[in-house]
Amino acid sequence: MIPRQLFDAVGGYKDLPILEDIDLARRLGRRRLAMLDATAVTSAERYRRDGYILRSLRSQVCHALFRVGLPVSMIARLYGKMETAP
Hints:
The protein has about 90 residues and is mainly α.
């Protein structure tokens, strides 16, 4: 949860095809992030379909490309190709 004033101060979510959450966390900075005592429930469908290792590796590659400055539009295209690869 982010206070609205802080969310607005850092520019909110950018209109990105993927990694918008990572971008926001990066702009917030580590000092303003905190661990929450909460549980998040999500679907494991993609992990089951693609395999846990491949799905995790795909995410890590996208995060690494983002960290080194590759434009998100290019990462999204690569991600889309990775999604459809056999």
